[in-house]
Amino acid sequence: MNGASFFQVGLCLDIDEFCVDESHRRMGAATEMISFIKAYAKAKGFRRIELNVWEFNQGALAFYEERGFETYRRYMEMIRNIHINPMNIYADRIKRNGYKN
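Structure (tokenized):
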């Protein structure tokens, strides 16, 4: 699936860059997308679905956990300048990748 937001890795469906524009949140769009992805994964024989979420994004963590996702692996990084606010790093990454803040 060229250009898709999810791709096959073995028998795992990996969701990448999953988000809903702030103006459309709390309207069921994310729930519908997760339902579609679950049905797609089942139809294609995937054994599990994975996704990455920022640890400080408590709303997203709660959303995914309410839909059955569980933390089983943690990615960690070391910030070169430990005096930088992690939220600024996140904002910089979003700006670099062309996303709105």
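Helices lie at 29-44, 58-66, 86-96. The longest helix spans residues 29-44.
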